[in-house]
Design goal:
The protein is of the alpha+beta class. The chain has 23 helices and 18 strands. Helix 3 (about 65-75) packs parallel to helix 9 and helix 5 crosses helix 6. The longest helix has 18 residues, at about 275-295. The model is unreliable at about 1-20, about 100-105 and about 635-640 (pLDDT under 50).
């Protein structure tokens, strides 16, 4: 065909050079490679793509791709002046024959104009304007420049705008590295990017590739033998990722390590501690649990290994996509009662005990200016005089505020910071009710010392990096910091186990009998956020459910009713391959039998006795004053010799 003889000589047939710059983005750097991520077992997770758009010059676009695109989209591109009357007439005949608008007859130039300046509205006025602008365009730019603009401006589906993004998204390559089979696939995409992109349905892509190959053979661009061979040469297509919010967090970590420009250049192989099986289980459990409550709710889940900080799975929402809101790592929400375990752990470190008795009677606090604040329990119930253990299990707001007052707000804020949870002292005693905002990742991280004998493990999403340009490996060991005594961690965990047996998450009692577990529900005062953070000796998981624009969901929207079931469903899957083990007990933990009504050592007269655990030196040393044995009568006292 004449047009392809012209294509071979296009440098001689173009009009005057462009009178103004036409590259809309920075040139694609050479030597740029993708950032590829695999999970802990070496399975492909996804690619981290540049966030900037780049411009690729025509000399870096494979000749085969140019010929394939022109064959199927505009075979007379180098002959017409912006509109192709012959193609329009042919399309009109086909439209009449089929009784509908089957073909548009648009040239490459017209498509570029529509994509760059106009809308896709199928009106006569728009088509006339498009044709007029296309002819004007051809007087301002050379044919090669127009073709270059087309490749850089056209949409290729899945957020890929232009060939530079498309080639990296779908094939992990720069455009000049594309194979002929990959070129055939990409040449068919502009017709319908949503349908024919390489991640679409196989049958749709195969049909479109056949159209491209048939047209190339008709124009004698390829032979029949080449057409037959290219049918099976699709290239290795890999999607942008199976854990988009996790990949987004890896990107953020890379930017902190190397800077944004280095991440844009790529060329890295990342090994993440992610487990794709757990990731799929997390996505399924979260979606099912959230949709059970309401179809337009959102949620997030973070699962870590408490001993290393390895993030084993993370779901930042039900909408997916690396650029969507990452509720697992970035969204700040009030944790409600999920903050309370940290307050009780701080209290244990200062000498309070799980068996100490506190009044649940509300107290009014001076807020200044004549105003007072009187915290009440969820449901406005009063529990009377109760132990700290019971107060935590039943999530007493009143007692927790009193405990925080004794610990001291500044000291607690410092303690929470060491645990990995940044808080603001300005919130005062209301911190006991979880009024400061935190991320789910930070809250889960702050629980790791409770599950790991007092050692905080920083959340880790990268275990090693291979720099392909330098052929060098960098290892990232766990970042571990002792922040809590093992004894305080053990006693706090002991108290949190009761949350799952008779407390606010008692629906998990059966689960906790099979798997030694501890955890805490969280519900904001206005029923906008539901939380559950729970752990076993080897896995810790946090779940949040709520609306992105906070709004109340009523009294039944609690951490125990909404978030805890999601946690249990996921954890059942996470613990399947793991042996059942109990929380290790520090050697110097003290056990004493006490009367739970008083917290003192039980006597034979005490009607109820329980075994309680203590940090060394904090155990009670006096018998229960309510049930002290009666003094012996004189007749029972032996005579002195």
């Amino acid at each position: 065909m004449k047009c392809f003889h012209l294509l071979a000589l296009s440098a001689c047939l173009t009009t005057a050079a462009a009178q103004e710059p036409f590259a809309a983005f920075p040139p694609l750097p050479r030597g740029v490679g993708p950032i590829s991520v695999v999970d802990s077992q070496g399975r492909y997770v996804g690619r981290i793509l540049p966030q900037k758009r780049y411009w690729v010059t025509l000399d870096r676009i494979p000749w085969f791709l140019q010929k394939a695109l022109l064959a199927v989209e505009d075979a007379r591109f180098y002959e017409h002046g912006g509109i192709d009357v012959r193609s329009i007439a042919r399309a009109f005949v086909k439209d009449v024959a089929k009784g509908r608008a089957a073909e548009g007859g648009s040239t490459i130039t017209q498509q570029l104009i529509k994509n760059k300046f106009l809308t896709a509205e199928p009106t006569l006025d728009r088509k006339v304007k498009e044709a007029r602008m296309a002819m004007d365009f051809e007087t301002k730019y050379t044919k090669n420049q127009i073709l270059e603009m087309y490749f850089n401006e056209i949409y290729y589906g899945n957020g890929a705008q232009g060939l530079a993004q498309a080639s990296r998204l779908y094939f992990g390559k720069s455009p000049e590295e594309l194979s002929e089979g990959e070129c055939v696939t990409l040449a068919g995409v502009p017709k319908n990017p949503g349908k024919y992109n390489p991640l679409g349905k196989v049958e749709d892509i195969a049909m479109r590739r056949e159209v491209v190959l048939k047209r190339m053979e008709e124009l004698k661009v390829i032979s029949a033998q080449q057409r037959a061979a290219l049918r099976s040469q699709w290239g290795a297509v890999q999607g942008p990722g199976k854990a988009p919010h996790y990949l987004a967090q890896i990107r953020a970590a890379l930017v902190r390590l190397y800077g944004a420009d280095a991440v844009e250049l790529g060329g890295l192989d990342i090994t993440a501690p992610l487990d794709l099986d757990l990731q799929k289980a997390a996505e399924d459990a979260l979606k099912a649990g959230v949709r059970r409550v309401s179809p337009d709710l959102q949620g997030a889940l973070v699962c870590q290994d408490p001993a290393t900080g390895d993030v084993l799975a993370a779901v930042g929402g039900l909408d997916g996509g690396q650029n969507s809101l990452n509720r697992a790592f970035n969204s700040m929400r009030q944790p409600g009662s999920a903050i309370k375990p940290l307050i009780y752990a701080a209290a244990l470190e200062e000498g309070l005990t799980a068996s100490s008795i506190w009044s649940d009677e509300p107290v009014a606090y001076d807020r200044g200016g004549g105003a007072t604040w009187k915290p009440l329990n969820y449901g406005r119930e009063r529990l009377g005089d109760i132990s700290l253990r019971e107060a935590l299990a039943h999530s007493s707001n009143v007692v927790t505020v009193k405990v925080l007052e004794q610990v001291g707000v500044p000291d607690f804020v410092d303690f929470a910071g060491r645990m990995g949870l940044p808080l603001r002292a300005q919130n005062g005693l209301s911190l006991a009710l979880g009024t400061d905002e935190v991320t789910l990742k930070d809250l889960v991280q702050a629980y790791t010392p409770l599950a790991a004998a007092g050692v905080r493990a920083e959340a880790r999403v990268i275990t090693r990096i291979h720099d392909r340009r330098r052929d060098a490996w960098t290892e990232f060991p766990p970042a571990l910091t002792p922040v809590l005594s093992p004894e305080a961690a053990f006693v706090t965990t002991s108290m949190l186990r009761d949350v799952l047996t008779y407390g606010t998450a008692k629906s998990l009692a059966a689960f906790s009998r099979e798997h030694p577990s501890a955890g805490k529900t969280g519900t904001t005062d206005n029923y906008q956020d539901a939380w559950f953070v729970g752990y076993t000796p080897g896995v810790i998981t946090g779940v949040w459910v709520g609306y992105d624009r906070p709004r109340t969901l009523g009294r039944g929207f609690t951490g125990g009713a909404v978030a805890a079931p999601i946690w249990a469903k996921f954890m059942a899957r996470a613990l399947e391959p793991r042996p059942v083990v109990d929380f290790p007990r520090p050697d110097d933990i003290v056990t004493a039998t006490v009367d739970p009504a008083t917290g003192y050592l039980a006597t034979e007269a005490c009607p109820k006795k329980v075994d309680e655990v203590y940090l060394p030196g904090t155990e009670p040393d006096r018998p229960c004053p309510l049930h002290a044995p009666a003094p012996e009568s004189p007749s029972q006292v032996p005579e002195q010799p």
